[in-house]
Amino acid sequence: MTEGITTGGLVFYGVFFASIFTSNILLTNFLGMCSFLAISKEVKASVGLGVAVAFVIGITSVLNWLAYYFILVPLDLIYLRYIVFIIIIAAFVQLLEMIIERVSEQLYNTLGIFLPLITVNCAVFGAVLFLIIRNYNFVNSLFYGFGSGIGWAIAIIAMAGIRQKMARSRVPKGLAGPGMALIIAGMMAIAFMGLSGMIKIT
Amino acid sequence: MPVAPILISVAAICGLTTVLAVILVIADATIANYGDVKVTVNDQKELTIKGGRPLLSSLMEQKLFIPSACGGKGSCGLCKVKVLTDVGEHLATELPWVSEEEKKQNIRLSCQLKAKKDISIRIPEELFFVKEYETEVTAIRDLTYDIKEVTMRLVNPGEITFKAGQYVQFVVPAYELTPEPVYRAYSMSSHPSRKNEVELEVRLVPNGICTTYVFNHLKAGDKVTVNGPYGEFYLKNTDNPIVFIAGGSGMAPIKAILNDMAEKNINRKTSYFFGAQAVRDLFLVDEMKALEKKLPNFRFVPALSNPDPSDNWKGETGLITEVLDRNLASGDHIEAYLCGSPGMIDAAIKVLNKKGISNDRISFDKFA
After folding, report:
1. Are B144 and B201 in contact (CB under 8 A)?
2. Do B42 and B155 belong together in one domain?
3. Total structural domains in chain A?
């Protein structure tokens, strides 16, 4: 059996590539579905939310990796990881919102208003749990976090594009809106499955 | 069981939370601190508020009340203000409530807008007079089987200045139908010279949060908070003939306007069409008859759509629109004032248009 790149050897670009395409957190793990379905009506809003999620997953992955290996493991408090991760994510998002609001009005208008939605986005939390379960080291966690975020952003932007195109096509009445969105999401997931043979992620 | 691990876990969580909380508090005091911001209202009044907070609540702290039904959650779209300074684009949370036309004029929702630097806004002049009043219920009287008249004495502040026909918001405290206080608008049936009282007419709506509260819980001596006055439903200062059209508790603002006219000796040609189903829905007929004596040019026309045989009704019969059609002379100089249910108002406006009265001469107050 041949594999393009194995992550068994923990190569960071393998992790990065895998987290974007072959193990897309949204389309293969179905995390972050609620905002994916709710916000993907418009491309502009999707880009804003996608960028925000990518940034937050990237940074919180690193922060939580540090908290896990430097606080929880040494103190033998691994069973508290869920609550600690959530506290850190919530605090970081709060802080980020304040900073963005201060620094750039423009950025706040396009990105900042989505931040409260991200605090409760399961993709952020899911990514952190995966990198703990898979025993990633710091560099891999960093690339896995940003990769997952970019993958999530690509998925929602693609979805928004499809939905915006769909707006002009005739959809059976009962399926219009969320029904059609779920069917599209399913098809996108099948399409992404086609990439899954390339890299095996463990 | 060993105590040490428990202590360690508690200490670790507390420590972590404290560190994060301290960071956030510091950030709130530095990054999110925009200092004091000057708000210029209508080019005449200057208020100093804390920057970075929603405008609606900041103005409320300064005792400037902008009407809002949802309390700043961005779900009612009432708290609009016109912003004269540049405060950036409309937020996504404002867009559902702002029309294209309003967008061009930079009309914003004050609950979503945060003032980060000095800002100049324009609001309707009368909002300057809007205050919050603590009141005490002095009397509750049955006008009909489903309409109650509630009289409240103003405690603090002790006097209210308003135009006859305006409304106040009644604050319903949390009780079994609502977990949080809600605001409901009611026209004042008292006229402006009764400065230390507010009188409302409340019609029972099945399961209505406010009406159920008034009918089942409110009693004389209770404390009630109201704020106001609001609204543009008042008599225009002209010499044109007037037609009032009302149904049910739509009587309230018209009664106030009529009493005000009687006091000020405004003797314009006036007719008042009041629609009801049967005699049991009619009220304040004696007071209207007394007003006819005080105002020689005033005529009260009650109309019953479905009089009971035992009523022995000899007056006008039929839907208010039919009665209006029969009794109102055509003329484009007539001013019309309507108060009642949306259905009645829309139907009556059609009749008025047919009689040659254009929409700019028609004022109305719809009960939504």
Report:
1. no
2. no
3. 1
- Alpha helices in chain B, H assignment, sequence order: 4-30, 55-61, 100-104, 209-216, 251-264, 285-294, 320-327, 342-354
Half-sphere exposure at residue A187, Cβ-oriented, CA atoms within 13 angstroms: 9
Rounded Cα distance between B298 and B242, Å, is: 9
CB-nearest partner of A109 from B5, B27, B91? B91
pLDDT at position A13: 83
Residue of A nearest to B13 (CA): A84
Residue range B107-114: mean pLDDT, rounded: 89
The answer to whether the complex's ipTM is over 0.85 is: no
Please state the three-class secondary structure of B274-322 as a single string.
EEECCHHHCCCHHHHHHHHHHCCCEEEEEEECCCCHHHCCCCEECCHHH
* Predicted confidence (pLDDT) at residue B74 exceeds the cutoff of 80: no
pTM (predicted TM-score): 0.58
Structure confidence by residue, pLDDT tens digits, B160-173 = 989 999 999 898 88
The Cα A36–Cα B153 span in angstroms is: 54
pLDDT of A165 > 90? The answer is: no
B interface with A, Cβ–Cβ below 8 Å: 5, 8-9, 12-13, 16-17, 20-21, 23-24, 27-28, 31-32, 52, 88-89, 91-93
Beta-carbon separation of A98 and B32 below 8 A: yes
- What number of other Cβ atoms are within 10 A of residue A41's Cβ? 15
**Across all residues in chain B, what is the average pLDDT?**
88
The verdict on residue B30 lying in a domain is no
| Contact between A76 and B20 using a beta-carbon 8 Å cutoff | no
pLDDT at residue A104 greater than cutoff 70: yes
- Check A105 against B88: CB less than 8 A apart: yes
Q: Give the CATH number, domain containing residue B335.
A: 3.40.50.80
Residues B217-265 pLDDT 10s: 999 999 999 988 888 889 999 999 999 999 888 999 999 999 999 999 9
- Residue B85's domain comprises 36-127
Look up the CATH number of the domain holding residue B134: 2.40.30.10
pLDDT digit string, tens, across residues B284-337: 999 999 999 999 999 999 999 988 888 888 888 999 899 988 888 877 789 999
Query: Tens digits of per-residue pLDDT, A22-64?
Result: 888 888 888 888 888 877 877 887 888 888 889 999 999 999 9
Minimal-distance CA residue of chain B relative to A72: B12
Residue B168 to residue B153: CA distance in whole angstroms: 14
Test A91 with B24 for CB contact under 8 angstroms. Answer: yes
Q: What are phi and psi of B242, to 5 degrees?
A: -120, 140
Q: Which of B9, B24, B28 has the CB atom closest to A80's CB atom? A: B9
- Residue B339 contacts residue B362 (beta carbons within 8 Å): no
Q: How far is A32 from chain B (nearest CA, A)?
A: 21
- Determine the distance in angstroms separating the CA of A29 from the nearest CA of chain B, rounded to an integer: 30
Residue B94 shares a structural domain with residue B154: no
Q: Do A87 and B16 touch (CB under 8 A)?
A: yes
